[in-house]
Design a protein that fits this description.
mainly alpha, Uracil-DNA Glycosylase, subunit E, 6 helices, 42% helix
Length: 127
């Protein structure tokens, strides 16, 4: 995102809204999916309390699937690669986990194209 730790934790500037408030545990290839129904029940009222959202980052496959639904590409890689198609409403991203370091090495365009644009947009939203 290109922000400092201090900026990231300014709750009046940056909000982190998980798909669930409960950690579902680990699966074979990462975290298990969030519980069904939580997002449907809580996201709309929570978003109503944040009327000035400038930029929404969809981090990881579960958030992308939940918010983009059928409008997402066939793969996570294709969705992230075509992130401009979802702007200005959403900015889809891979989860910044050690499990995705291999993915990032196979997809150098992410660091050279997507990350700089993300940082530019975050900076603009915070001004």
């Amino acid at each position: 995102m290109g922000v400092t730790r201090e900026q990231f934790y300014q709750s009046d500037r940056i909000a982190v809204m998980p798909l669930d408030f409960y950690y579902p545990g680990k699966g074979k290839s990462g975290d298990l999916p969030p519980r069904k129904g939580f997002m449907d029940k809580w996201h709309e009222p929570l978003l109503a309390m944040m009327p000035n959202v400038q930029l929404t980052l969809l981090v990881g496959q579960y958030a992308i699937k939940a918010y983009l639904g059928r409008s997402r590409q066939k793969t996570l890689t294709a969705t992230v690669q075509n992130y401009q198609d979802y702007l200005p409403d959403y900015f889809p991203l891979v989860h910044p986990s050690p499990l995705n370091y291999g993915w990032q090495k196979k997809n150098p365009w992410f660091q050279t194209t997507v990350v700089p644009d993300l940082q530019k947009r975050v900076k603009a939203a915070l001004q």
